[in-house]
Amino acid sequence: MYINSIKSLFHERLISHYPVQEINSFFHLLTENYLNKSRLELALEPDLKLDQKDADLFLDALSRLEEEYPIQYIMGHTEFMGRRFKVNKNVLIPRPETEELILWVLNSNSERTELDILDIGTGSGCISISLSKQLSDARVDAMDISEEALRIAAENAKENKAGVNFIQSDILTLKSLSRSYDIIVSNPPYVRKSEKSEMKNNVLKYEPDLALFVEDEDPLIFYRKIGELAFIALNKSGYLFFEINQFLAEDLVKLIKAIGFDSVELKKDIFGSDRMIRALKK
Ligand SMILES: C[S@@+](CC[C@H](N)C(=O)[O-])C[C@H]1O[C@@H](n2cnc3c(N)ncnc32)[C@H](O)[C@@H]1O
User: Which atom of ligand 1 lies closest to the CA of 243?
Assistant: First the structure.
């Protein structure tokens, strides 16, 4: 089968699901992934003929894209902070907004060394591994309730040669954190179940509920618990960083201040939504 016929088939069968640009982007990600060919290399070989095995890979991916299965799960990996991370249905696909959170953590601590860091709800390990790579003298712990997620996170740490200590624990039932830290960071579940109707199928149907959703009755449950534990476990001048639900930003600032933190700051993401909070323990 010729590569150009496959490309036409992608457009024909996916046009009712995705914009043209996104279909092109899927196609090029897959050609890089399956054939190790860049967009430019492919343009120079319009008559490239695929053997049956490679053609089947594309056709299988096409069927899954028709079901709106995420491209990152199809390929089995994604890129985050310039590094490759394995992903599967047990972990949230790392988002660009979370890269912004990491940059804020790094900028806030550029003068400090030998930091003790904890990432709560590590998922694929994207936050803990990125921080461990960027801050080579840091000691990094990472926690998640999900054994399957921790398995992927550990594989990602190995692939990226990052030294992270993974801990399986339910943060909501923990009485205290086992040691003290200079930085505690978390991107916990924060989408209210009532927000499901505004979400796209690829997220709703395939990304793990455990990573995404909280009950409408208490949407700040993770922030309250992590905030309280962090206020005790953080060292003097330690920082708590959260990724947040933009619709709950003001409530969250009040909550974090009520716990006792000083200089609680909100930060917007590139889309202009309140997406992060930084709080200082004096
Ligand atoms: C929004 S995802 C964040 C994943 C990753 N840190 C990221 O930024 O892409 C939230 C993570 O919290 C974990 N989680 C959910 N409930 C938890 C609990 N009670 N204790 C610890 N981790 C929990 C989920 O398994 C999931 O990996």
Answer: 8
In sequence order, what are the residues at sequence separation of 6 or more whose Cβ sits closer than 8 angstroms to the Cβ of residue 116?
138, 139, 141, 179, 180, 181, 182, 183, 235
Residue 262 confidence (pLDDT): 87
Q: How far is the CA of 190 from the centre of ligand 1 (A)?
A: 10
What is the mean predicted confidence (pLDDT) over 84-105? 98
Answer yes or no: is 277 within a domain. yes
Ligand 1 geometric centre to CA of 182 (Å)? 21
To test the pocket of ligand 1, the residue of 141, 145, 220, 275 to mutate (highest count of ligand atoms within 8 Å of its CB) is 145
Number of domains in the chain: 2
Q: Does the Cβ of 121 fall within 6 Å of ligand 1? A: yes
197-232, pLDDT tens digit by residue?
A: 999 999 999 999 999 999 999 999 999 999 999 999
Query: Is 155 in the same domain as 203?
Result: yes
Is any atom of ligand 1 closer than 6 Å to the C-beta of 279?
Answer: no
Which domain, by its residues, includes 26?
Answer: 3-67
Q: What is the pLDDT of residues 121-146, one digit of tens each?
A: 999 999 999 999 999 999 999 999 99
How far does the centroid of ligand 1 lie from the alpha carbon of residue 149, in Å? Answer: 9
The answer to the question of residue 98 being in a domain is: yes
Measured torsion, CA atoms of residues 156, 210, 189, 255, in degrees rounded to the nearest 10: -130
- Closest C-alpha among 13, 19, 68 to residue 202: 68
Q: Hey, whose CA ends up nearest to atom 26 of ligand 1?
A: 211
Q: What pLDDT, on the 0 to 100 scale, is given for residue 165?
A: 98
Closest CA to 68 of 24, 35, 22, 29: 22
